[in-house]
Amino acid sequence: MVEDVVRTLGFLCLGSRFKRIGERLQADTQLMLDELSVPVQTSQYPYLAALDRLGPITIGELAQALGISQPGVTRALSHLIGLGLVEQRPARDDQRQRIVALSGAGRRLVARARQELWPRIEGAVADLCGNLSGPLLRQLDAMERGLGELPLHRRTQPGRRRVDAPLA
Fold first, then answer.
1. Nearest CA to 104 among 80, 84, 81?
2. 79-138: pLDDT as tens digits
3. Dihedral angle of Cα 18, 19, 22, 23, to the nearest 10 degrees
4. Rg, C-alpha atoms of the chain
5. 131 within 8 A of 165, measured Cβ to Cβ
6. Is the pLDDT confidence value at 166 over 60?
């Protein structure tokens, strides 16, 4: 078996470790989205959730609310606008700024996700993290081991056996 260098280097590779876990969580979540035939990637849901929560706002405000660069937000929004889930219009007081908001289809999608998907995702992540305690690197070990034993998308299936990720 090949050494897991990112794991072995501990705090030196903490950002890479977080990224690896994040990518795994997003991939597993994407499988849940695919089951429901949702036309959005997991990375786009924070935009929809923020617009649902905050209402119509400028692109700059959305970037600030999500902690993402404005060019990144603009790229993601252009895809969501193309899907008909988000609308944009010029701001009344400054024609250079754009106001973005959920379209009717976007509001329906968020309502469906809030009912059918978000509770499953939150429950699966809570299940994964429920027994974590102790030092951070051991918690990350337990998360990765838990995802290896039972991926996030399978943690929400009825009748499945709970897999605890004990800290070693």
1. 84
2. 999 999 999 999 888 888 899 999 999 999 999 999 999 999 999 999 999 888 999 899
3. -150
4. 19
5. yes
6. no
What is the per-residue pLDDT for 24? 94
**H/E/C letters for each residue in 52-75?**
HHHCCEEHHHHHHHHCCCHHHHHH
pLDDT for the residue 36: 81
pTM (2 d.p.): 0.81
Question: How many whole angstroms separate alpha carbon 141 and alpha carbon 125?
Answer: 15
Q: Give the CA dihedral 26, 27, 29, 33, nearest 10 degrees.
A: 120
> Containing H/E element for 88?
strand 86-90
Q: Whole-angstrom Cα distance, residue 157 to residue 166? A: 21
Best CA proximity match to 78, nearest among 55, 107, 100: 100
Task: Read off the tokens for 90.
Answer: 């010029």
